[in-house]
From TrEMBL:
It holds the Pfam family DHHA1. This is Phosphoesterase RecJ domain protein. Residues 153-178 are annotated as: Disordered. Residues 25-141 form the DDH domain. InterPro entries: DDH_dom, DHH_CID, DHH_sf, DHHA1_dom, SSDNA_exonuclease_RecJ. Residues 239-322 form the DHH-CID domain. Residues 409-507 form the DHHA1 domain.
Length: 512
């Protein structure tokens, strides 16, 4: 079988075979949109391969978390969206015979190797822009379908029925009499290609779409999803909320490209829409972008571009009004689940508030009313992001030579301070020409650090993963991540020393 990412194929097959050899598996994943989709992909692949498993989520895979995992009586642990950066800790447990790790991750690996380690960075693929944790998990899921197909009843995974938690053998009777319909959807399920939609949600949630679209291995996964009938892509308005926001709110809240008289301007947005010769209300309610016809969309988009041009928005910015949209074609129109970007925000709204179970339920097809609960959490998440961005913009960031920073104390939750920092970049007083470092209180002893850069700074040599790792270890903490976005934990009181060290390292990176 040629997998979705040929470079990773051999390793993926080795990992899949190892999972098939396990009696049961502990699946451990990270608490954000990418971590949740990684887990949801792995969970469905394990279910379909009839490998029993249990799922746990961790905010961070530190020494304590790995020790707790080792204390369970699972012999095989599948780590998704983390594990590579903690290979030193994990390796010690492996050596001690606590468990065999299987890792599908895209973070910078620690200085150690293990046999069942699937990571794009080991094969020359960029883990910050070409493959996410969910993408790595998808590559594994595809391999799992292929190898478990060989090993088990070849028709099991294609029967479309409820997946069973017990391993089936070909001698067991099948409820449908063993006749497999060769419809496209059933095929996509049989080889796990239907899971490409979740992989794209993970990549978008990790902000891997740069310049308006996904690249590299991610683009290959998109193609598989389109073939499998679970994804549609095309150029569309690059605004957040095309599925769920009423049109005036869609325009008012869209601030990535500022359009004078519309962005951040409730009445302006209303006047703009009223001025178009279209029926944009139905039963007194504003319609949503996703419900417009192609012609209606064209009319609104052209008027928006015209307005941007006439109010002096630079051409380069205007280009950013259009990007590639990733639509989950099997989800209902007008729901968060249909748009990869809205879906990923919905997931962050659960996982970053200790409700990863809710997000996982959503990914697995709205189990136990998870979607309604997730929507409540989303309202809270939006409020927190907006308050956080206001706070940071009001107080501004402290400028050092090469970095800028702020300390949110207990005013912003440590699990979302990085998202806030990234979204605030470019606002008044927060430059896009220096990376931003954000601190938030974690507990009585520790401070959480999040850092965000831009792709342009990365091209100039910035690697925040190295900055967070080195600067945190210099003050008795630990950290890592990606070149463009990374984090750390440091002892409380070490913030100033940390900033000084980080400032030096960034200075060195950008000068060489
Ligand atoms: O742990 P993980 O890799 O899943 O998280 C990546 C984080 O980095 C996400 O919160 C994402 O929003 C952030 N990121 C960013 N800008 C980028 C790439 C990633 O803020 N260009
Ligand atoms: O929360 P998350 O990091 O997934 O958000 C991804 C992007 O979605 C943000 O950078 C922002 O541009 C957009 N967003 C938004 N309004 C929200 C949440 C997210 O515009 N309420
Ligand atoms: O928490 P935050 O959103 O700032 O994380 C940014 C990136 O850094 C994520 O990919 C996260 O997994 C990584 N990170 C890490 N080690 C830490 C904290 C964050 O590798 N201690
Ligand atoms: Zn990730």
């Amino acid at each position: 079988m040629a997998g979705p990412v040929p470079e990773l194929e051999d390793r993926a097959v080795a990992c899949a075979n190892r999972l098939c050899a396990a009696d049961r598996v502990l699946l451990a994943s990270h608490i954000d949109a990418d971590g949740l989709t990684s887990a949801a992909i792995a969970a469905q692949a394990l279910e379909r391969a009839a490998i029993p498993f249990e799922t746990v989520f961790e905010k961070q895979l530190d020494e304590d978390a790995v020790t707790a995992i080792a204390a369970t009586d699972y012999d095989t642990v599948l780590f998704t969206d983390f594990g590579s950066g903690q290979l030193d800790i994990i390796g010690d447990h492996e050596d001690a015979g606590d468990f065999t790790p299987v890792i599908a991750d895209h973070h910078q690996p620690a200085d150690r190797e293990t046999e069942f380690h699937l990571n794009p960075l080991l094969f020359g693929i960029n883990g910050a822009s070409e493959l996410s944790g969910a993408g790595a998990s998808y590559v594994l899921a595809r391999a799992l379908a292929a190898v478990s197909d060989d090993e088990l009843d070849p028709s099991v995974a294609a029967d479309g029925g409820e997946p069973s938690q017990t391993r089936r053998t070909s001698s067991e009777p099948r409820s449908d009499g063993g006749i497999v319909t060769a419809s496209g959807a059933a095929n996509a399920r049989a080889d796990n290609r239907d899971l490409a939609a979740l992989a794209v949600v993970g990549a978008v949630g990790d902000m891997q779409a740069s310049g308006g679209e996904l690249h590299g291995a991610n683009a290959g996964i998109v193609e598989e999803g389109v073939d499998a009938g679970v994804l549609e892509t095309g150029k569309d308005l690059a605004l957040y909320g095309k599925q769920t926001r009423p049109l005036p709110k869609l325009l008012e809240y869209a601030t990535d490209v500022h359009i004078p008289g519309i962005s951040n301007d409730e009445n302006g947005a209303l006047r703009f829409l009223d001025g178009l010769d279209l029926e944009l209300k139905r039963d007194g309610e504003w319609r949503r972008w996703a419900g417009l016809t192609k012609d209606e969309k064209q009319t609104v988009a052209s008027a928006l571009v015209q307005r941007a041009v006439s109010s002096g928005v630079p051409a380069k910015k205007i280009d950013q009004l259009v990007s590639t949209a990733y639509v989950l074609s099997e989800e209902p129109v007008g729901t968060e689940l249909r748009d990869a970007s809205e879906f990923s925000t919905l997931l962050n709204a659960t996982a970053r508030y200790e409700r990863a179970d809710v997000g996982l339920g959503v990914c697995l097809g709205d189990r136990d009313g998870a979607l309604e609960r997730a929507r409540q959490l989303l309202r809270e998440h939006r409020r927190n992001l907006s308050n956080g961005i206001d706070l940071v913009t009001r107080e501004g960031a402290t400028q050092e030579d090469h970095v800028q920073w702020f300390h949110a104390g207990d005013e912003i939750r440590e699990t979302i301070v990085g998202i806030v920092a990234g979204m605030a970049m470019g606002n008044q007083g927060i430059s896009r020409s220096k990376p931003i470092i954000a601190f938030a209180e974690k507990n009585d002893e520790e401070t959480k650090v999040s850092s965000r850069g831009t792709h342009s700074l990365v091209r100039q040599g910035l690697d925040l993963s190295a900055v967070m790792g080195k600067a945190s270890r210099a003050v008795g903490g630990d950290g890592g991540g990606h070149d463009v976005a990374a984090g750390a934990t440091v002892p409380k009181g070490q913030e100033k020393a940390f900033v000084e060290r980080a400032d030096e390292i960034v200075g060195e990176q950008l000068s060489s």
